[in-house]
Amino acid sequence: MTELSTITNSPENGDTAASRFRIDKLSPLLLRFLNRLKQTGKSVHTISAYRNDLSTFCQFLVAEKIDPRDFQSHFQERWTAYLGSHGRKSPASVRRALMSVRTFLHFLIKEKIIERSPMLETKSPKQPSHDLLMVRPEHYFRLVHTLGSKERSHDPKATRDLALIQLLGECGLKASEASQMRWADVMFEGNPIDDESTLTLRISGQNERLVKAHNEVAQALWKLREARKELTLPVGLQDKLFFGFLNVSRRLKSDGLHRHGVKFVVYEVCDEILGIPYNSESLRNHAILRWLEFGLSTQQVAQLAGYSSLNSLERFKLKARGQRRPKRQTKKASSANESSTNKSVTTERISSKAEGGLLLP
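Below the sequence we write its predicted structure tokens.
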């Protein structure tokens, strides 16, 4: 993180130097906060997300010369606009940034750096409920057909993209699992270029499992292996499946793709061919719904997808039946309903006694 400039509030407001918040202290305070998260056992990805959000927030405070103790409503609107100008446009991304700031402000109060902040008194925006994201079947077949046509012109990028799309859309892999796949995990059954061939994938990681795939996926992965050879990339048992390009001309290439690289490839391919930036999870959901449509049991689908709980498949079964997932009931609403139920029961008992009747428990 770049060192923040030493900017303080203007003395024109009449504040003394002792009462002003030292904005040049934001950088060490942020480091202390991130270290505290690490001590409490937060994951590396969570800490990284906090670092990105709060670095942007600290830059905003410096640019606007704002004291966190005086974070009024109009400054909060400018903070939201600042997020949008720095690429944070989705509601989920903005909501996460706001929650990160509130957690950081709570830390400043606990450390007695500040006494209060008006931002903590505002309500957090609600997370919108979305339908299950899934690549539509006609879109998936269009992806495979278009990439297959490009692959026949011996385009190594199309060969890689076709194998990746099929591995996610047919075998239900996550982007992180696809990025970690090695040739030792691919077991061909029969001649890979034969229409009768199939393969078995060994998915390692937290949810280890075996997934069988048909001949089209087997042929795509075999052609991917041949493309690696043509690019003078290794194809040993411990080498990864998917290669990357480091520039537009494709003259510089890498041996493997990180999970973020896999996600970027899916975004790029879907946006280029379909005009819709589907993500890798949409392809995985497509595979899971197809398994359910083929009549596989819930236990079989959970095993293929790597789910440890069958409850994770409930949203897919609702989608297959054309239903929407019911809204979650908050604790406050749940307690209010329970209180209303108890009150109605009490009223019924009183009225029953008044009428001389008996109400059995």
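The longest helix spans residues 331-354.
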